[in-house]
Predict the structure.
Amino acid sequence: MALAATFLALVVSACGGASDEVGSSNSSESTNAAATDGGGAEVKLSLVAYAVPKVGFDLVIPAFNQTPEGKGVTFSQSYGASGDQSRKVESGLPTDIVNFSVEPDVTRLVKSGQVDEDWNQGEHKGIPFGSVVTIVTRKGNPKGIKTWDDLLKDGVEVVTPNPFSSGSAKWNLLAPYAEKSNGGQDPKAGLDYLSKLIGDHIKVQPKSGREATETFLQGTGDVLLSYENEALFAERNGEEVEHTNPPVTFKIENPVAVLNTSKNKEKAQAFVDFLYTPEGQEKWAEAGFRPVDPDVAAKHAADFPEPEKLWTIDDLGGWGKVNDELFEPETGSVAKIYDEATS
Amino acid sequence: MASLAVPKPPARTRRSLGGGVGPIGLGVATLWLSLIVLLPLAAVLTKSLEGGLGGFWDAISAPSARYALLLTTAISALVALINVVTGTLIAWVLVRDDFRGKSLVNAIIDLPFALPTIVASIVLLSLYGPRSPVGIHLYATKPAVILALAFVTLPFVVRSVQPVLMEVDREAEQAAASLGASGWTTFRRIILPALYPALLGGAGLAFARAIGEFGSVVLIGGGIPRDTEVASQYIAKQIETDRPASAAAVSVALLLISFAVLFAIRWFTKRKDVG
């Protein structure tokens, strides 16, 4: 009898729970409706990004909130290793906007049907900001490291994240690869350089660009390969480091996309559009990222010196080709070098 | 009164066993254990065998996986040993000595259980990291890993030895002392035999905890492959780089080591008890 009563109570409470859920999903739909009407009701956007742009979003989001479009929009933000974050979204993490370090991490979501195929058809090809690969050393650069060849000097330990989880790591390896292979024309020369670098000079494998910075700041290694913006961030924080842009380096392009599964697609798109406005671009420049708007870029030319030669991913044949040939686990040439050196 | 009360409970137990509550209890316990423990373990095992036995073997015999497993086992054994010595000492002080603030110290013992282990790692990093205020630099060294593991496993031996120590027959000790045995001899011949099962049990738990520990090691340990990277860090790395089968294989290897040690300890203490 008592058992039956308990059971009944359980059933009742379970039903209660279920109807609560229905109620809450109703209410969130109604918020959507209100938001799309421009009623100014609260909208919460979920942003999933790679590890380092937090400093940028910390400036951009308040600026977005100042605009009529962005009034009352709140954000839940998640930062981590680019590949790792992309896989989380792929496996169902509720997300409205993604910002990854490298394009293949967005392509993964295109393949899974979560991002529309035309996400990179806009004026800036889905890239609102970028950076260049830079060499960070201890203050005063005691080992005199300025070029990619300097990294191979005896006893130089290089910190760069793991390319299978981090986007930063891919950019970092592509920079010397592009120089040594002359833009991919002589892949063997590029890979020879990378096997020396990976085999003899890279000991730790942090999972993201941010974790690599932390590891370097804790005292590991002589050189950190990183985004220019990450180097600027560390320097502005008063860390005892300095960065040198090598004369030949690589253009980093960090894509942003809206998920087609988003319940607040319009607001999400409005936010992404804001990133490209002069105002938004100004904030990215302030945070140390290279803006893509030519006017804003011209204004900040002094902060972002042009290297002698800047290779781009298009020079190497685009991400599809580069990822298949170099970074595809098990079969890519860099993946093989990594496995050999670190497994 | 007492003699009347004693036979009664067994009768009730027997009746309840036949009456229905027993099987339900047993059923719930089995179901719970299956859902919470056995099912996930079976899933891990299945995942680890995705690439067949050969794939499993390749995953755990990759040089850095093998190194991580060996390092983890060796350091965990060492930490369990350290705990046996220091844990017994602390339990001894708490049981036999009286001092002000004893109850406070008693409470502090359990703190490593309550503290999120990542906090332990941060604290250790700020104490022994590159900006150490005490001038000790242990970041990314094996002693740092040992220190972190010793911190989180501190309570196990203390808490298993303490109650036994309270029960130890003081008269036998006094008798030994009056027969001229030194303090050390008394400890070795009278107290230690009584403590054996508790010590082994505590050490086994400390070992099992250390072998799977992640949070406390992750920051201070540095995670350098083939140097300070412990198995749990290796597993995390495999997951982050999208190699779940390899992660599962190393996890299964860890489980087997842990299970073997716990099982051996149980068997050993049981035999000891019988003898």
User: Anything to note?
Assistant: Confidence is low (pLDDT under 50) at residues 1-17 of chain B. Chain B has two domains: 1-48, 52-274.
